[in-house]
Structures are given as structure tokens and as C-alpha cells.
Amino acid sequence: MPKLKIDDLEKISQRVRKTVLLRDGAGKAKITVHMGTCGIAAGARKIMNTLMEEIEKRNIDDVILTNSGCAGLCSREPMATVELKDEAPVKYVDLTPEKIRRIFSEHVLNGKIVKEYALAKGSERMS
């Protein structure tokens, strides 16, 4: 393992500060990537990595990115749930890196649900 440099420690410190701010309610959105065994086998790690890259590239500091276990729909993995502040969560299915980039741009950043990739909003199925 390479030795940490002062710059590395500063980056870690900044990330932790952002996480604390988001947990205190400063976040405008939360994205949960479902990473049970079925999700990981279907490509959930690529989805998580793509989201981390987008957040880093765009210098986003008000979006919480987290993971969870299986959501119970193994055949529709990889999946992610997007929750905007004061709105019902939207579950997206059959994801690819390209799809999650579009969801991130349109839904997370601009509030427009990408209906063709969405399975459900709250407890309602999307039609």
C-alpha cells in the first residue's frame, strides 16, 4: 500500500466533511445503489463507480451516495433508488453506466424522472 501524502489526507478530510454535512440534512438528493449479491453479479459496482465519477467530476457536494442490500427484484438488477428532498423515491432498474449518467443529469440534478428506466415511484408502478 502506498504511503499517504498530505494532499491525500486533505482529500479524505474534505470527503468526510461533505458526508457529515449531507447527513445533517444539507443534501438535496440521495442515491442508493442496491448491492446485494445479485446486484453485484449484474453490474452494480459499475453503477456505483460511474456515480462516484460523476459526483467527483462535477464537484457535487449536496448528493448522498450510499448502498444497500438486495431490493428483492433480482431479475431487474442492477438497480438504484433516487430520492429528492420532499419527493417520493424512484426506483430505476436494468441499469448501465450510460443510463445512470442520464438519470444523474436529468433526475438528480434537474428533477425530471427518466420514465423509460423507472420501475416505480414511491409504492406506485410507473406506466
Structure write-up:
- 42% of the residues lie in helices and 20% in strands.
- It is globular, with a radius of gyration of 15 Å.
- It has helices spanning 6-26, 37-42, 44-57, 97-108; strands spanning 29-34, 63-68, 80-84, 90-92, 118-121, 124-125.
- The model has no long low-confidence stretch (mean pLDDT 86).
- The chain has one domain (26-125): 3-Layer(aba) Sandwich (Glutaredoxin).
- The N and C termini lie far apart (50 Å).
- A hairpin with a 5-residue loop joins strand 3 (80-84) and strand 4.
- By secondary structure, the protein is of the alpha+beta class.
- The chain is built from four helices and six strands.
- The chain has a six-stranded mixed sheet with strand order 2-1-3-4-5-6.
CATH topology: Glutaredoxin
How many strand segments? 6
Task: Work out the strand percent.
Answer: 15-25%
Order of helices and strands: HEHHEEEHEE
Overall structural class, as computed from helix and strand content, comes to alpha+beta
Mean of pLDDT: 86
Tell me the name of the CATH class.
Answer: Alpha Beta
Amount of helix: 40-55%
Spatial order of the strands forming the largest sheet: 2-1-3-4-5-6
The CATH homologous superfamily: Glutaredoxin
CATH architecture: 3-Layer(aba) Sandwich
Ranges where pLDDT stays below 50 over 5 or more residues in a row are none
Q: Please tell me what the overall shape is.
A: globular
Number of helices: 4
> What kind of sheet is the major sheet?
6 strands, mixed
Distance between the amino and carboxyl termini: 50 Å
Q: What is Rg?
A: 15 Å
Domain module tally: 1
